[in-house]
């Protein structure tokens, strides 16, 4: 079933008159027929969960502004490329990948990305990832919401592990394509206060065939305090493996 759906989706993409981009996926018919979206009363744009919202505190905004200023800027006239690139973040990435809108209906249609499954702003995982492809590293600003409590007033170790897996996995996936976590080693050095903002730094250590070794450090935003250290191993997989085939 899934195999034939993947095939159908590939066929669909190859016959599609426009490349399926985020916009094209979310607004396919109207965009292809050249109609103005201004007349359409419904917004079909996917929500980018990594954009600033009212729950972000000043420190989170400050980090966001700092890295945004270092990002590539493209205008109609010129293209200035900064070393950093802000990644968008959706609650079902499959839906917004080329042809994935159909797959996302067939495969666990109610599934949502673990870290993006709360609609309430600020309750759980608020984060944004900035990628530096040249240096094969990324930085994530993470503000931990009140639903992530472990020890009283502090962030649950499992929530920290989730964010480390997410950030290191995003880096590995960005650099080499689809991956799965094979191993995660974490040392918790000092607790993270709930509501606080930390930076999650991740960098590629080395590539060995299908194996991607990545390191990670969770620090205060001024980097003076180390909260957590980790190493992770990811394995390159084909799309079939991701879908359990
Ligand atoms: C595209 C969607 C984008 C989404 C964006 C949202 C961002 C969110 C990001 C969230 C990210 C969240 C991500 C998640 O949460 S992923 C979910 C959690 N992870 C899993 O469920 C993975 C389950 N395991 C497997 O599927 C397989 O075992 C994998 C794929 C990992 C390996 O497969 P397989 O077993 O068939 O491997 P191989 O035989 O080809 O071996 C290859 C090499 O690897 C070495 N090896 C293997 N395992 C280990 C190990 N444990 N320690 C040390 N080494 C290991 C092995 O010795 C060999 O080495 P060598 O002999 O070549 O030297």
Automatic annotation (TrEMBL):
Protein's UniProt keywords contain Cytoplasm: yes
Protein's membrane topology: Peripheral membrane protein
Residue intervals passing through the bilayer: none
Keywords: Apoptosis, Cell membrane, Cell projection, Cytoplasm, Fatty acid metabolism, Hydrolase, Lipid metabolism, Membrane, Mitochondrion, Mitochondrion inner membrane, Transit peptide
Biological processes per GO annotation: apoptotic process; fatty acid metabolic process
Domain spans labelled Thioesterase: 153-224
One Pfam family it belongs to: 4HBT
GO cellular component: mitochondrial inner membrane; mitochondrial intermembrane space; ruffle membrane
Catalytic activity: hexadecanoyl-CoA + H2O = hexadecanoate + CoA + H(+); tetradecanoyl-CoA + H2O = tetradecanoate + CoA + H(+); decanoyl-CoA + H2O = decanoate + CoA + H(+); (5Z,8Z,11Z,14Z)-eicosatetraenoyl-CoA + H2O = (5Z,8Z,11Z,14Z)-eicosatetraenoate + CoA + H(+)
Major enzyme class: hydrolase
Domain of life of the source: Eukaryota
GO MF, any single term: hydrolase activity
EC numbers on record: 3.1.2.2
Main location class: membrane
Compartment list: Cell projection, Ruffle membrane; Cytoplasm; Mitochondrion inner membrane; Mitochondrion intermembrane space
PANTHER family documented for this protein: ACYL-COENZYME A THIOESTERASE THEM4
Family: Belongs to the THEM4/THEM5 thioesterase family.
Protein name per the record: Acyl-coenzyme A thioesterase THEM4
Species assigned in the record: Hemibagrus wyckioides
Phylogenetic placement of the source organism: Eukaryota, Metazoa, Chordata, Craniata, Vertebrata
